[in-house]
Design goal:
The complex is a heterodimer. Helices cover 51% and strands 17% of the residues of chain A. Chain A is α+β, with helices and mostly antiparallel strands. In chain A, the strands form five sheets. In chain A, strands 17, 18, 19, 20, 21, 22, 23 and 24 form an eight-stranded mixed sheet that branches. Chain A has a six-stranded mixed beta barrel with strand order 4-5-10-7-9-8. In chain A, strand 1 (57-65) and strand 2 form a beta hairpin. By secondary structure, chain B is α/β, with parallel strands linked by helices. Chain B is 37% helix and 27% strand. The mean pLDDT of chain B is 87. The A-B interface holds A 1, 4, 7-8, 11-12, 15, 311-312, 314-322, 325, 400-402, 405 and B 49, 52, 54-55, 75, 78-79, 81-82, 86-87, 89, 93-98, 102, 106-107, 109-111, 154-155, 158.
Chain lengths: 789, 232
Amino acid sequence: MFKLNLKIALRNLWRHKTSSFINITGLAIGLSACLMLLFYVSYEWNFDKQAKDSGRVYQTMTNVMENSGDILFTFNGTTTALGPLLKQQLPELESVCRLGYGRIKLIANGQNSFKKTSVFAEPGIFDMYDYQFISGSPATAMSAPRSVVLTESMARILFGTADVTGKAVRYEDREELTVTGVIRDLPENSSNRFDFLMPWSLYEILDPGARDLNWNDFSYMTLVKLRAGASADLVNKRLGPMLKKYNDADQQHFLYPLGKLHLYGTFVNGKSAGGAIEQIRLFVILAGGILLIACINFMNMATAKSERRAKEVSVKKTIGADRLSLIMQFLTESMVLAAIGVVIAIALIELFLPIFNNLLSIHMEIGYFSMKIWVVIIGLVLLTGLIAGSYPAFYLSSFDPVGGLRKNIAKGGFLSVSLRQVLVTGQFCFTVMLFISTIVIYKQIQYIKNRPIGADVSVLVQIPQDGALLQKYEMYKTALLRSGAVTSVTHASSPLSHHGSNFMGISWPGMNKPANDVLFNQVHAGYDYVKTTGIKMISGRDFSKQLASDTASVLISASAAKVMNLKNPVGTQVKVFDDQLTIVGVFNDYIWDSPDRSNAPMVIRLDDKLPGVVTMRLNPDRNLQASVDAITTMTKDINPAYPVELTFLSSVYADLQKAEKILGTLSNLFGGLAIFISCLGLFGLVTYSAEQRTKEFGVRKVLGASVFSMMQLLSLSFVKMILVAICIAVPAAWMLMNRWLQQYEFHTAISWWVIGIAIVGTLLTAMLTVSLQAYKTATANPVDALKYE
Amino acid sequence: MIRIENLEKVYKTEDIETTALNGINLHVKAGEFVSIMGPSGCGKSTLLNVMGLLDKPESGSYQFMDTELLKLNDKERSNFRKKHMGFVFQNFNLIDELTVFENIELPLIYNKIPSAERKVLVDEMIDRMNIHNRSGHFPQQLSGGQQQRVAVARALVTKPKLVLADEPTGNLDSSHGNEVMELLCELNEQGTTIVMVTHSSHDASFSNRIINLKDGCVISEKINKGRTEELI
């Protein structure tokens, strides 16, 4: 029976090529979009879950408290003292590991030097992650301080081979390290990625401050692994009172599953409040929606063809088929179609995966050898076949044999017509909503992009202040200026686009509380910071080399002046931690970190000695490439050990909107696909409707109907459905997108023209689709039409 | 074999009620060949559909080999139909996607006959209908007469006790029509009971008994002497 059903299905596909094409194209595109999104979702979902025991690995989180006792924010930074204490006091922990954040550092094999991501960690890291050693072993890899573990590709970059255990590399142009292990490259979807891993004991040599166990410096992470069966909740309950005994500062720590941190990384009041998972949910809805649109096409086409199939159903029933066998036959047909669709979909995915990876700046691979993938793919085929085929199967198999044989199945019947209308309306509802969302996201990106940065970044370049660039900064600056490639040079502890140093230890005259409870941000900058970056002074002046007193001066932002409620800030004395500083200037706030929200009030202090970045303003009168080349040569001369990493700040600022851009690209892409599949379905329906009414149109034409009036006749019912869809979709999209916009402090509004474009765009596309076929039908020779019947 | 008593069937649309069968009584003996004639709309096809369990009457009784069929549910009707009845239609009603062989095989599949046995039965039938050079063809590739022979083969392959034919020659020219009628006669002579609806008195002349319907009632019944004597 199955063989026979399969045969009928395949022959049916072959005989009705147009509808097969529409169905297969729609399903293939729908399935590839859906699979691609699902692969992406699984990529995100599996973040930090690759290790066998990843379920027992927890990150220690810190709640930063306000003076009022409220939780200001939660992050994963911990102190050096925490890890050893946890290990000593909590028998539930199998392993504890302190590690630093990944930093881009220099690693060299002789003259070949590269800046790659490095991490310092205690040997416990081998308990947290299942690194696969190609050579060396976790037991010995970190026993000597001056040792390093390389990833396979790092080893190949440095030495051209992975067989490098025992060889020497040079770290930051000052430490000779021995390679004690080579491991397979880490999965892309891992939070603590590195190219080379060094022992914590080395870090304690390089930064003696890390040796003593302090409770103040939150620059490190602490990972723990629970013993099998231990409860994180119980540990968390004991943690508070236990910490109180050893640490008088009232810090709160808690364990949070490492595998959840990537997707549920937003904390409010110390409790997880979602995070990237919301975007993942959005993608799942998008994936399902697109597949559903393709399935609806199939259902619509199948029921539209019902007249043609009625005879077959009736004959089969007459000669003894029961309903179940007919249902199975129609389901087989949809499964066959879904299977063909998925084969094409996989080909499409293979074709577009590199582009997709590029768009999202990820490195996703599809492991065709893993069972899981095939379970998903086959599951999707079955699900698609079932969704797409169930309605036609139950509808067609319900035909009563007498009616079908007489060839007078009521055209569609009440239920089927209304259901088909509901399906088309639903399809276009989703499409219109995607259309509106795409425009709104685009508008928001433009809005933020057009928000003045507050600094003139168009000709700014920056370079990390590594190696000799710190000691020889003055010499470097003089050389740069003399060359004429740049007009101004400054340096700062953090790049203009990202200021990471938050603090609260500031007090000012007239402060009405014992301590400041507003988070401030500080940057340590050299001379010419204002001049180089082009930030606008409201009052006062930049630091001056001529005034020795400026070493005890500070610049504050307009928002800082507002928080401090100072009438004439210039000349006012403020205290930052233990330093008494005089405000010499007030500057306008400028954008750093998130361009969509206002920043914390900030202060700029004069300090030439802290490493950070050198920022320079290119000479606008010179050829850009020539200036960049000149800077590269000079930098290489002064700092030969390090590669020259010159970045344009304009591109850095453009990258700040990466998340929105990804969302924009995806909604563009999948919105476009949804519209295409919907129109494909519409085209199919109009084609069938035209075919069914061939005779009617012939008669009408003989009686003198105009082409336009017949086109109108054929198009009107479809246009009506789309209008209904618009009426439902517009308010829904309005509400959803307004909610989306609310998360941005600076956001655009959904103007009427956005809705207008979406309505006109959808209607135009749909009308074009419909009228193509309608025109063909309306202009056909009526004699042919009448003969046909 | 068949006892039909007081059969009534009414078709209702929104505002019109049409009585298709108005208290019909009809008995058919095993081995008989009965023609049903009458003007368009007299209820011939409805009667045939009721006899074939394709349609349900409002009231009355329909006994087939002493079983009351009107009390059966859908599944039982379907089972009964596929075991005991074969159908031949005016417009052949072959399935376009299946070859001649597969079309004839289809009822056997629904009767869950094993594959090897199916092949024997279908080949036998193809031989009998003299269409073995066409067994791999699709219906569209055959002439009307050939298609009707395939349809007859399909009706007979399960060896039904009753064959119901609805104007089997309606779409055929006279020579092909005669071929089909001779085929039916031959079957009848081998013991199959046949009930045929027809407009053509020529076709009816092949049967033992001719029943005339009008407005849903039997108005006359005629024994076809020549054939009946042959039967005796």
